[in-house]
Amino acid sequence: MKNLICSQYMIPIFKPNSISKNVFVTMLQTNLLHYKNYWMRPIKFSIAKAVLKIKIPITFTIAWPAKLKFTSSEQKEIFKPSVEVTSVADKLFENGKYEECFKLLSSTEDQNNIEIKWRVCRVLYNIAKQPKHDQAHRDELISKAYSIIAEELESHSDHFAVQKWYALILDLKCTNDGIKRKIQELANIKKHMELAINLNPNDAALLHMLGEWCYQVTEFPWHQRKTAEALYTPLPYSSYEDALDYFLKAEAAQPRFYSVNLLRLGCCYLKLNKEDQAKYYLKLAASYPAKSNDDHLAKKEAAEILRKLKVKSDFTISP
Question: CA 116, CA 99: separation in Å to the nearest integer?
């Protein structure tokens, strides 16, 4: 308090009888003038410097305290993520540069935009599948992706990418959570895949995942199925024909887009005793240019199957 009273630019506190009225008024006016000059001068200089430095129009500077008003089209543009950001992120993702893609998306200002959010979930999903990370970190990544996409499901139920990545992330999360959880969510996973495919019938990746769902359900051994049904819940049924149909649709939508799709086509044809068709797709899978861990695993499995079929491995097929 003493420091405040003695301050050069603060109004002193006086006792009523200690000074005459005229002297008091004079000192009060003087101190008020110092007070005003002290605070107002720096503000004027800082505004002037700001105007000169960033070259804001004078009209904008004068109107600065007022709220800016935008048309509806301008407002949409503000909340719309940069096309450049999403296109660069998509390119990085397609080239398997998942960490770079994640850093780019995480650095954007519009983190609440759904076009940014589902792309973040997509890249987290793919990072979580990389074996270079320990299981605890992978679980953490997929849990983070699930919390983001699940939050958007109700408000964006008609958004294809939200339905698609909710299904895929839920599938991986349930796999990490254990067989009981996976069995309980099988029907729900397929439901959201089908909702997504209704919104975009020609998405190759989703058609592949529906084929993968049918393939894995069909591959479930009979005794394990009965045990699981006794302990948990009845399992859905499918067939290799159903799986093959989805894999072929995926390949027609985007030829040779995914090594695992080629591998699964070969495996389905083998299960249906169509060896010639099986060899054709297995050769494609074995010679596929590997960009991801999935590609390396698919190439390895395809080559092993071909060796069992006594097919020479010195073939070359253009990607």
Answer: 15
Interval 5-42: pLDDT, tens: 344 334 344 444 444 445 444 544 555 455 444 444 44
What's the pTM value of the predicted model, to 2 decimals?
A: 0.66
Contact status, residue 136 vs residue 89, Cβ threshold 8 Å? no
d(Cα 29, Cα 200) in Å, to the nearest integer?
75
Distance from C-alpha of 120 to C-alpha of 157, rounded to nearest angstrom: 18
Chain segment 103-127, per-residue pLDDT in tens: 999 998 888 899 999 999 999 999 9
C-alpha R_g of the chain: 33
Closest CA to 303 of 274, 283, 278, 319: 283
Q: What is the DSSP string of the chain?
A: -HHHHH-TTSPPP--TTSS-HHHHHHHHHHHHHHHHHHHHHHHHHHHHHHHHHH---HHHHHTTTSPP---HHHHHHHHSPPHHHHHHHHHHHHTT-HHHHHHHHHH-S-TT-HHHHHHHHHHHHHHHT-TTS-HHHHHHHHHHHHHHHHHHHTTTTT-HHHHHHHHHHHHHHHHHH-HHHHHHHHHHHHHHHHHHHHH-TT-HHHHHHHHHHHHHHHHS-HHHHHHHHHHT-PPP---HHHHHHHHHHHHHHSTT--HHHHHHHHHHHHHTT-HHHHHHHHHHHHTPPP-SHHHHHHHHHHHHHHHHTT--S------
User: What gap in Å lies between CA 250 and CA 262, rounded to an integer?
Assistant: 10
- The answer to whether residues 163 and 196 touch, using CB atoms and an 8 Å cutoff, is yes
Q: With CA atoms as reference, report the closest residue to 286 among 268, 267, 272, 304.
A: 304
